[in-house]
Hints:
Blueprint: E1 3-9, H1 17-28, E2 32-35, E3 44-47, E4 53-56, E5 69-72, H2 80-92, E6 101-104, H3 112-124, H4 137-147, H5 162-177, H6 186-193, H7 197-210, E7 212-214, H8 216-225, E8 228-231, H9 256-264, E9 270-278, E10 281-284, E11 312-315, E12 317-318, H10 319-329, E13 334-338, E14 348-356, H11 377-386, E15 391-398, H12 405-419, E16 425-427, E17 434-435
Parallel strand pairs: 1-8, 1-9, 2-5, 2-8, 5-6, 6-7, 9-13, 12-14, 13-16
Antiparallel strand pairs: 3-4, 10-11, 14-15, 16-17
Helix pairs in contact: 2-7, 3-4, 3-5, 3-6
Amino acid sequence: MTRSHIVVGLAYGDEGKGSWVDHLVRRHGIKYVVRFNGGSQAAHHVVTPEGTTHCFAQFGSGTFVPGTSTVLSRFMLVDPEAWLKEAGRLTSLGVNLKGLVLVSENAPIITPFNRLLNRIHEIARGGSRHGSCGFGIGVTQGDVETLGDKALYAKDLRSDSLIEKLAWLRERKVLDSARFESPQTTELRTQLIDSDLSFYVDLFRCFAERVRIVSDDEISDLIAHNDTVFEGAQGVLLDQQYGTFPHCTRSNTTFKNAEALLSAADFQGEVEKIGLLRGYGTRHGAGPLVTEDNSLPIPACHNGLNEWQGQFRIGWFDSVAARYALEVVGGVDTLAITNLDRMRSLDQIKIATHYENTDARFFSPEGDRMYVLPNDLQLLTERTGTMGNLVPVYQATSGFGTQGSKGVESYLSFLAQTLHHEIHAYSESIDHRKIYKRF
């Protein structure tokens, strides 16, 4: 029987999805990794057993395993320019990519105009920045929703009329950018106005020659008859419907898109839903992080400063937010805790069990539950506005340093109790020193 594994993050991203996908591919011999949300802003770091490292963005995180193909579904926003650069980095690491990337003909294409307009928008927000990555994700998704077939898709990249479509799209972005004209946006607007269309036609053609652009029916057939890993991006707390709006992504970060692809394929096999959480809290960019404590002596990791998002932030484990994410996705078959090796130096570990100073519209009277709200952007914005007032209430436990594996097991047992959900697995390290247990 065929089997599909769906991997999602249950926080604000950076939960270790890349390493987990790489592990699943190696463990089960899976040949297809399907990307089902987000785009080139993904940053999924993988360290192979041999020590090779790469930050996967538009390739499946199992690509280091020979013969593993990437499928960029219709829900993936594809940036050909960034893809070609990433392909070059992988090739320099000795990865043979020939024939291993399939792209849905209906996958939206991120243009340079969309990237530039995204950054112009973010500058114009001043002190109210959303924490955008500056990769054009929101602008491109907006094109899909407002322009329909007039937006740019993978199937257009081989069209004889590509340059005319690019010219029309650029003109729309130039007009849009005029609303945000200021000394701070002048340089980006100039780049937008002077974009070399011929250069991008050639670049997009090059991308189209390097990948296999296929129909959604072909992708459905592939999903129906092969074991697959569906690799999500970002995290549930950044979801466009359930996240901390407006500090979220223009994407479905739950299981929703993967389930739609499985349904379209009439998939009859087994489906494993996998949710990941770090052993401590993280967030990249603006928005609430209730348990933030940047004084934590956590060793530096691959995540760092991003010019547009801002600093990578850390804090204690937030069981209220984790319970909320689990409720949003309807629970998971496998709940895994990652990056515990980075907590080895902590003499004491704190877990937020509930909040004080809550707003009754959004939180339970005990402060231990965040309500799932209707898809109302005003209401979601109001909830986000109240989260700066929240005061986390912690329960402390001893650190791992003096107790070793017993300390880890004690911590995970407590997390299982406070999450009301069995923890099926954990990884102590990102470099494949994996330990699997149940709690």
